[in-house]
Amino acid sequence: MEMKMAVGVANWLVGKVLTKLSDGLVSTYMASSELGSNFLTAKNQLMYTQALLSASVGRDVGDDPGLRGLLGTLSNKADEAEDVLDELHYFMIQDEIDGTKEAAAEVGGGIKGHSIHGRHVARYTLGNCLPCFSSPRTQGDEPPAVAAAAAATNSEDKPGTSNDDGDVDIKLPFNRIAMSKKIKSVIEEMNSICILVSDLLKVKTANQSSIALSTHVTTERPPTGSIVPQDRKLYGRSDIFEQTINALTSGTYHDKTLSVLPFVGPGGIGKTTFTQHLYNDEAVKGHFPVRVWVCVSTNFDVIRLTREILGCIPVTNAITNASTVEPTNLDQLQRAISERLDSNRFLIVLDDVWTCKSERDWKNLLAPFTTGGTKGSMVLVTTRLPAVAHMVKTTDPIELHGLEPDAFFALFEACIFGRNKPRIYDDDLVNVARDIAKKLKGSPLAANTVGRLLKKNMSWEYWMGILEKNEWQSAKNDDDILPSLQISYNYLPFHLQKYFFYCALFPEDYRFYDLKKITNFWIAMGIVDPNCQNDKNYLDELVDNGFLIKDSDSDGDEYYVMHDLLHELSRNVSSQECVNISSLSFRVSDIPQSIRHLSITIEDKYDESFCQEICKLKSVIDIGNLRTLMVFQLYDSERGYILRDAFEGIKSLRVLFIASLPEYLPESFSNLIHLQYLELIVPLGERDNKHSPRTLPRFYHLRFLDLFDWHDHIIFFPKSISRLVSLRHIYSSKEFHSRIPEIGKMKWLQELREFRVKKESVGFELSQLGELTELVGQLAIYNLETVASKGEANDAKLKDKRNLKELKLIWGAGQQITDGDVLEGLQPPPNLRELGITNYGFAVGPSWLCSDISIKRLESLHLNGISWDTLPPFEQLPQLTNLKLENIAGMHVFGPGFGGLTERSFMYLKTVKIENMPELGEWVGGDNSPLFSRLESIVCHYCPRLSSFSFLECCTNLCRLDIINCPKLSQIPPLPQTSTLTELCVGYGFQASLSYDGKYLSADGYKGALAFQNMDRVEVIRIFSSPHVSLSVSDLQRMKSLRELVAIGCASIFSAEWFDAVVLKELAAHDKSLDEENISVAAGLIPEVAISKSSHPGSFRLEYMEVTSISAVLIAPICRRLAATLHTLRFYYDEVTETVTEEQEEALHLLTCLQSLYFTCCKLRSLPRLYGLSSLRKLSIADCDGIQSLPPKEDFPTSLLILDVSDCCSREIKEEAEKLKEANPCLSVEVSNTHFLKPS
């Protein structure tokens, strides 16, 4: 596999060099007389070698150390060639920006040509005299054409290197002769190696058969069987094991003809062991008369597998006597299986499935098992690949993850000691073992690997050595953890191997949220072709192959993360090129000299040894040869200066992630001519001192600039930033986008969120947008009132920006429009999805929107502050689903027949939002209101004159209705008018009088009608001050999820029909979702229940009750019905009751399950005796000023543990409470003057 990787890498790098050689300008330069006539021959040799390499990728070319060494040399030379060609391209870009011809293919004749040539000769001669100007590039030297720049400017803040605007004004000088010699040298060296490699590859392919990668991998997979090894106990999966047994034998799959259940997880996680235990369970054996185990591995051959399955099915006597002919083709094999199964229920295990070429192959394999037979048959599939599990499943796969810590440690100890732990296994060894176990991330295979290492030597020193050096990572046996996982890596296509390879640079448990950013990172690394990515989701491909996990955080945002052991694998396979070092465990001696890509994770804790080790880094690796440098986490200025000094000399970087201000950057930062991705994060404590590096405009190859962490507070950035002509993306605030002058020079820019026209400032004319044809996503253009004519508007060339999806055109409020055709000239591209027009104060809309419509794919339209007599014909926009109208003066009626709208104008709309419409009085539906049936969301805010929605009942698919500050709106049907309406808000100001989300209903003073019949899933109803609201028996019967009903000031909500139909009993009986029901009722309700003839014990199943009247509850019939379940009773602000009668006290004593009792009764003069409440734990008395004393201690139950007295003025009560505490030390007494709070 190392050879296959070497071939793949060499093929990739040679291809990158050929791509650069094929660039028009570079190709012309290379073919010029200065490099001689051998360029075409050398290029042809490169293409020939690449063709041989491409043909060898994925094939077995043997493991020849000589060929492997040549491929390594070729790869290094290809890297060197890419650097020098990239450097040439840099100066060609500089020529294009400045209008010079320093790096042109031919300098020409005449005085100017001779002058340029003379400068180059002098520069080259000087370079031969001074070491810092040396031309040929060796390890540690400057690039040939950049060397002079080191002498000219090598500091970000060196005096005399900037102009009046603070921009660096010294260009990097170009040395033509040095460049030509270096290009010629490296191409010739590369060419000579290509000849040797080509000759060897021809010999290899001639002498060895080409074996497909999948076939080669097959030999690497050990077979598996169904028998559980004697020492292989199942640890930590008892719950899922029992659930699966039940599902197999009597549950989920019992009534289905055939079910396919995959077990998926990374290598070594225990899929096969888990399945072996299932297969051999006695319940499974008894349930499935026929059981078959087949190890599939990487060779998914339908005939082979069918033959193996057939061989495992017992032959009945009838079949034996009938025929002895051995089946040969697939049809005969399948028929033989069907005959042998003979309608028996069967269990087939397909273990270790790596691939299945197509669904057709899978269906062919299953064909003999899907016809007839007893229901409940199963196929279990184990696989590392989620893509395989997804293809074969008929039910959700079971994902196996690492074991929980306790279960894993038990397994770990068993792997070390077997059944008996030795006496020398003391606390010191236990602690080391636990520390090692934490690093193994719950992997059973890792436990086996490390267990074998630890059992060799039981000394503390040996174990500590394994812990500190992670020695299990170097274990090479096939059944060790990393070799096992590496099989998965070897099986990946080469392009996915590259992506996984560089994932080693990210810290453990790193979450990849932004697919675009990680793809751009790979583009900058050169492993993704930006012209051929076709919006592929490379992370999803790694998910399908089991190398990443897709998950969501607490906010619902999706991210990708790598399993810890696979992260170790990534570090292992890339260890000679990539390393991520931690500031807490970094030792420079562990870093290979060949490292090209480096990342550092800064820990919060300051570590002096890290600073010492990082300073030694230059002595181990070639800093100048680093292609990637990423620093994760924020750090302080002290570590900033240390990192600056450590990385002085960087010059070949393609990617730089760093938390840094200019003063923390290495002096060589200004010469990073290869840089393609730059992310700058503000260091700790420097939030008020933000300015970007002044040499930033020099990075002509920069594609991606990430200043997102700076938000919109960058104090300074160079005015010549538009020299970044290769820039594709600027990750920053939209305010930063709007401050870039002469942005039109960045013709490849794909992201410009905001542009502000400033005629008084050079570089902010609308015409700057003309050349930005690659823009994607959203663009907002402000200050359009300064645009004087249609011609000036045409200069923006908006209709040529075919990838633009969202456009906002914004005029200043109250500004007079001088030319009504300006908007006509701002015609968007035909593929536009969202359009917003604000404050365009002209009477007529543009033809491209209002008559001859050119944006047929528009999905969302926002019109704000317009004065058009006629609105656009929405019916001619078949994809328009979202409409927002805001602040449109003169619109009195909205709907068909007004403003040019027809009934068909609303036939496609799903969302309509009307806001700040002071003159709108009516929204009408017309004669064909059913056309509104597609509407899913209606939002109406701040329309003070709006009085009716005459069509609302026709909106049968409405999901959201939001009405705020529309005080005259009265003609509203009962809400919610359909069961689909689960997002409802009606209110004034910031306070909603009605809100409903499908589960929770709150109405406070709402005057409209409520449609309870459409709230079948409601769980909580809280209604206040709505005396007209009533709740019928049938409504309650539909509310099977109702668990809480609060009704205060709602005299009509309760009906005698409730009690005749014993609805409360049914409500309790149907409430299966929760154990607790909370009902707070008006004072007159419960006495009616008490006298209802149909009420009986069991009518109530309440655990918590809150009432405003003691007399409403303390009635013997009621308390008998509450006795079995009521745990908490609260008398809340009873302003009538002065004394608890004897009959009420007796009724109270019937509540034998009562645990908490609360009195908040301002007129109550004395407490009832409570000795009969044998379960009472807490008694609370609050705001009971009329109570002058407590009952004697014998009137309290012995079960009482808490007595809480608050806001009672009587000093006697407080003193008596203290005496009770003295008499009963177990009683907790709290006496305070705080306001009473409802118990949680």
UniProtKB/TrEMBL annotation:
The keyword Repeat applies. Residues 766-887 form the R13L1/DRL21-like LRR repeat region domain. GO terms for molecular function: ADP binding. One of its GO terms (biological process) is defense response. Residues 505-569 form the Disease resistance protein winged helix domain. The keyword Cytoplasm does not apply. Residues 137-167 are annotated as: Disordered. Residues 243-418 form the NB-ARC domain. Keywords: Leucine-rich repeat, Plant defense, Repeat. It comes from the Eukaryota. SUPFAM superfamilies: L domain-like, P-loop containing nucleoside triphosphate hydrolases. This is NB-ARC domain-containing protein. It comes from Triticum turgidum subsp. durum (Durum wheat).
